[in-house]
Amino acid sequence: MNTDNFFLKNGYQSRTSAATVEEEPGDYWTKWRVNNAFKYQYYVYQYAAELVRKHEFKSVIDLGCGVPSKLAHFISPLCSDISIVDQATQEPFNKKHYPAFAFYPADLEKDNLEIDRRFDLVICSDVIEHLLDPSKLLLTIKRLMKSDGIAVISTPERDFERGEDCLSSPKPEHVREWNSLEFINFLEHSGFNVPKHFLFPKKKVPKLEWLLKSQFFPGVNNHRWSTCQTAICQKTK
After folding, report:
1. For residue 147, how many other CB atoms are within 10 A of its CB?
2. Which among 90, 128, 193, 203 could bridge 86 via Cys, Cβ 3.0 to 4.6 Å?
């Protein structure tokens, strides 16, 4: 495990360029991605909503949310103070379709987000794998969290998604991917406690399929069911 390579295993090759940076609207957020955004990381946001309900959180911010359809579905009914952060190219779309959310343009490769407040819940779902320097993102997350706040950070689980022999991501949009142990170590080294860590399906599963899986394949982790690792984080005291 290499601490100089964000706690990835020895021999792992990260990409040297980020393919998700948009010069113009639609470069990354194509019509297909916009139309399918609601399906992906569905269970991450469902769990985030449970946290809002349980702790009666009053403020939520989502870093790199893209199309905030899951925020609107899961979080808006529970919390009215919602902020979203993404590339400036996303601002016109989000202000048009989600005007109730405060939009902040930012480059998440830099710790330069101009928000002078703290939030009960910070969500960052499947963003960190796209960044050349994810340490800056984690600094931003910590800065935005209240002292007793919670962060929900998800990313693909490499070993389940690609296999244990994988030494680089085949997806050009992913700079790097971690397995569960590597990711938890990286987060803890970056100043977080990780009291809970889950594996969720990477996209919404039809209810019948979910019931059949639960009935006949309990506890099975495979490529289809459990490749989205989700860390529930608190700031180190």
Report:
1. 8
2. 90
What tens digit of pLDDT does each residue of 75-107 get? 999 999 999 999 999 999 999 999 999 999 999
| Boundaries of every domain in the chain | 25-235
Q: How far is CA 217 from CA 51, 162, 210, 212, in A?
A: 28, 21, 10, 8
Pick among 3.20.20.70, 3.40.640.10, 2.40.10.220, 3.40.50.150: CATH of 25-235: 3.40.50.150
Inter-residue contact 59 to 121 (CB < 8 Å): yes
CA dihedral sign of residues 45, 50, 55, 56: positive
Average pLDDT score over residue span 13-39: 83
Alpha carbon dihedral 51, 54, 58, 62, in 10-degree steps, equals 10
Using the structure block, give the residue that is written with the tokens 């680089």. 168
Q: How far apart are CA 214 and CA 52, in angstroms?
A: 26
> 157 φ, ψ to 5°?
-90, 105
Residue 220: CB atoms within 10 Å = 11
In this predicted structure, the answer to whether residue 221 has a pLDDT above a threshold of 50 is no
Contact between residue 71 and residue 99 where contact means Cβ atoms under 8 Å apart? no
Looking up tokens 């949310």 gives: 65
- State the Cα–Cα distance between residues 180 and 160, nearest whole angstrom: 10
What gap in Å lies between CA 115 and CA 141, rounded to an integer? 12
This prediction's pTM: 0.91
Q: Which of 50, 179, 34, 148 is nearest to 96 (CA)?
A: 34
Q: Return the half-sphere exposure (C-beta side, CA atoms, 13 A cut-off) of residue 82.
A: 26
- Residue bearing tokens 């320097």: 133
